[in-house]
């Protein structure tokens, strides 16, 4: 298994580091504004808990990079975290924030309002296209790199299996929030559990679907096995999305809001 980070001796400019922090930080602030808007409109805190959980998703990146052979230039980097010799820049932490906290509240609200099968899959396809279009420009300019000669189906520098796995895990987080609010939470205070469950859902959904690629890319030098593994990972990602669709489409209806209930003098008082 190859643990070598080929970007350890590659330099990055301060313009890239600061520019990335400003660019992605601005989008993260837009996402915060959107979450605040949804929270105020619904008078619920779950969008803010989702935002906080999204801010923890960077913890997955070192594992993801190590196993998927992705790396960032290290010399001159404004480093957020270093694990397994994987150096993660601050701007990627900001990417994780808006990557989830923008689409997830939108999806949850659409599902709660009721959604058809066609609408559900259209949303997934749109998100997959956005994911596929987002990274190639930054890869071209050296902000990050998918390295190794056995990266499969990497026509744009961004291997194709990511196009399907990344939007899948966004849908998985949205499904977690949607289903917990509908079937599990009986008190608004319980929504704070969303904070740790966001990164845990990311780990569980993305890493499990990507396991075939992670194994193949670290065991072979050619792209034959990784191509086959990529197809399997794409299939697993689509399977997960199909399962989510069954849960969401079959239950989509306005979500009853949880309340904190106390009983006094034979009467039940609801506190919202």
Can you give a write-up of this model?
It comes from Mycolicibacterium hodleri. This is Carotenoid biosynthesis protein. The chain crosses the membrane at residues 15-36, 48-68, 88-108, 124-146, 161-180, 192-218, 224-243. Keywords: Membrane, Transmembrane, Transmembrane helix. With 272 residues, this protein is mostly helical. The protein has one domain (14-251). The protein is 63% helix and 8% strand. It has 9 helices and 6 strands, in the order αααβββαααβαααββ. It has helices at 14-42, 46-54, 61-68, 90-101, 103-113, 117-140, 160-184, 194-219, 224-251, and strands spanning 70-71, 79-83, 86-89, 145-146, 260-264, 267-271. The chain has a two-stranded antiparallel sheet with strand order 1-4. Strands 2-3 form a two-stranded antiparallel ribbon. A two-stranded antiparallel ribbon has the order 5-6. Helix 2 runs antiparallel to helix 4. The longest helix is centred in the N-terminal third of the chain and has 29 residues, at 14-42. The radius of gyration is 20 Å and the shape is globular. Mean pLDDT is 89; it is low at 261-272.
